């Protein structure tokens, strides 16, 4: 996304990119795509105008709502498996000012802010995005001293509103948690939004699990703290809850196969998996997801579902059946593989 952002921002425009500009634009978008403008404008896939595709027969085609409505529906949200997408045409959106950053809390404030977030976040206007993440940072020099070797809570915030409004909106969180140990919230260029989540720039061995939650009641917060909070010794890197709702919960103007519109919050669990932890990481991450299962919708976002997750746990049954029919028509020999085929790649 970095090249798109850098080309768009000088014109007062922004794409529906995600928390890290190093992520590839096409795969992210065709999997749905939920970023800093999502609650106002919806999923990135909702704003795709055309997909340039190499088909299973080797033909090059431009897929639009007019040229092939069924394949266009499936490509936007079905992610891969229908062909090789070589380009996409997307909408950009005016963003003349952006206010965002992260506040990080430690100690007793972790639980206080997490409870406050659960009550506060659903009341936010649609031009605001936010998330919280329980973080376990290693005691190394690259980590800021207040965060080394401790469990912290990062509250991320992004808004296209005014700085004054942002300050007023964040006031309940500051009252609940007191002074954060780190605070980067301020006016920024959209080109600097990577600084909100501060995702690591380099790949790391890890196991990822995800899901969607129907809400964030107090019982869920207590359960989360019991399995991943500061009082628990557990090899996790991050447990994150992202607020959904707003335009994410509404159908796209041109219908598509995007999963997850029913979610109130998106759950992501990351466990480090270097060789000593390779067998432990799946057990630990699955344990967090299982602990929060009473509040699960039973579905996931494609891009946040995690490794090896069955398609049945992502899409609703009716959407999945339609995707599989479209997959069989577009790629009958299953040359491109993926979770939507009813046979292994190359089996026919």
TrEMBL record:
Residues 1-95 form the FAD-binding PCMH-type domain. GO terms for molecular function: FAD binding; oxidoreductase activity. Its cofactor is FAD. It comes from the Bacteria. InterPro entries: FAD-bd_PCMH, FAD-bd_PCMH-like_sf, FAD-bd_PCMH_sub2, FAD-linked_Oxidoreductase. Keywords: FAD, Flavoprotein, Oxidoreductase. Belongs to the oxygen-dependent FAD-linked oxidoreductase family. This is FAD-binding oxidoreductase. It comes from Nocardioides albidus.
